[in-house]
């Protein structure tokens, strides 16, 4: 199918880390292209879900919907499409701080190069998607959801907008801060009726992709197409163990070989965190809470 046979719907999150800059670049690139496209921008009173509701009646299955923003914007778009019952492939152009989704697919984080790549895609690819449910809500997670250090890092960035201006470096200072302030906590993981008691861990992560925080490789072997979540946690870590792991993450990248770090894979899992901990999903803060979640691995079509 040729480009002329499909329409591209670009949704710019103007509040993303580089949303305004991306908006200017995209407008220029689209004027130079021969695409059949529609361009939408969020505002304080017009969010991604509102835009999807506006365009859903005009969409055809062959049309592509592109998120212009960061990983959180991508997650919001997938969430809105799922709620609307739409299965259109989702494309991505980088305008966030981390952009871990496109990094996982070896797509450039330079906007113009990512746009050129988007035009060259011919077929959608299917990746894993995490459905997260609790007693009240359900949500869809593209990259990762976790509690502890990662949640504290994202909470710190969310509370201070000035920290969001430096791309991947955005995460560095809050990560160092989190190492000192995150207390170990207990959790229970249930997989296929088997319960795993997690004692004194500073972090628990459920991942589709290997990186977090702008390319920090937490699980380099993660396969986003295998139908499994990668669940990573630690037990009884001392502060020196934690420092050793940080060094490994940024040097040898063999942190999963540490004797106190554990990885399991599952298609469905239930997790209960027994204290108020900071949570994050796709780089967006979920606040601090004591929570029980049920997570399931689903599929999502992407144009990437």
From TrEMBL:
Belongs to the diacylglycerol/lipid kinase family. Residues 3-136 form the DAGKc domain. The keyword Acetylation does not apply. Its cofactor is Mg(2+). It comes from the Bacteria. This is DAGKc domain-containing protein. Pfam families: DAGK_cat, YegS_C. One of its GO terms (biological process) is phospholipid biosynthetic process. InterPro entries: ATP-NAD_kinase_N, Diacylglycerol_kinase_cat_dom, Lipid_Phosphate_FormReg, NAD/diacylglycerol_kinase_sf, YegS/DAGK_C. Keywords: ATP-binding, Kinase, Lipid biosynthesis, Lipid metabolism, Nucleotide-binding, Phospholipid biosynthesis, Phospholipid metabolism, Transferase. PROSITE patterns: DAGK. One of its GO terms (molecular function) is kinase activity.
């Amino acid at each position: 199918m040729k480009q002329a046979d499909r329409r591209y719907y670009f949704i710019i999150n103007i509040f993303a880390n580089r949303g305004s800059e991306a908006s200017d670049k995209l407008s220029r690139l689209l004027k130079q292209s021969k695409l059949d496209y529609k361009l939408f921008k969020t505002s304080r009173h017009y969010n991604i879900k509102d835009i999807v509701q506006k365009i859903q009646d005009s969409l055809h299955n062959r049309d592509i919907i592109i998120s212009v923003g960061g990983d959180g914007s991508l997650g919001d778009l997938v969430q809105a499409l799922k709620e609307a019952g739409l299965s259109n492939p989702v494309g991505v152009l980088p305008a966030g701080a981390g952009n871990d989704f496109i990094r996982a697919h070896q797509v450039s984080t330079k906007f113009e190069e990512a746009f050129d790549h988007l035009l060259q895609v011919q077929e959608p690819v299917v990746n894993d998607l995490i459905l997260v449910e609790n007693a009240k809500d359900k949500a869809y997670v593209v990259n990762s959801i976790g509690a502890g250090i990662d949640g504290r890092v994202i909470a710190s960035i969310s509370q201070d907008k000035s920290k969001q201006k430096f791309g991947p470096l955005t995460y560095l200072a809050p990560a160092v801060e989190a190492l000192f302030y995150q207390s170990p906590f207990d959790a229970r993981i249930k997989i296929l009726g088997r319960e795993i008691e997690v004692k004194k861990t500073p972090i628990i992560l459920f991942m589709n992709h290997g990186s977090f925080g702008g390319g920090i490789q937490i699980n380099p072997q993660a396969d986003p197409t295998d139908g499994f979540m990668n669940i990573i946690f630690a037990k009884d870590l001392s502060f020196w163990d934690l420092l050793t792991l940080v060094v490994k993450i940024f040097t040898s990248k063999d942190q999963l070989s540490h004797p106190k770090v554990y990885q399991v894979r599952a298609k469905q899992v239930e997790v209960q965190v027994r204290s108020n901990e900071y949570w994050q999903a796709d780089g967006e803060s979920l606040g601090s809470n004591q929570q029980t979640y049920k997570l399931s691995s689903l599929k999502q079509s992407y144009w990437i």
